[in-house]
Design brief:
The protein is built from 5 helices and no strands. It is mainly alpha-helical. Helix 2 packs across helix 3.
């Protein structure tokens, strides 16, 4: 997730602002806590970063 965010030149603050969530939540997700995200939040984050929820969570099953 961090790589996708940085590739866009966005800060954690910007992602938080775009999603309407606390900045520390973005930091927690980047440290491996994305599994704690509610489904709506994960979907919104994937859309914002131009990827899929599967990729945010570590790849698709057929790629493992």
């Amino acid at each position: 997730m961090r790589e996708l965010r940085e590739a866009r030149g966005w800060s954690q603050s910007r992602v938080a602002r775009e999603l309407g969530i606390p900045e520390k939540t973005v930091g927690r997700w980047e440290r491996g806590g994305l599994g704690e995200a509610r489904a709506e939040g994960a979907l919104a984050l994937a859309r914002l970063l131009g990827t899929s929820v599967e990729d945010l969570l570590g790849g698709r099953e057929d790629e493992r």
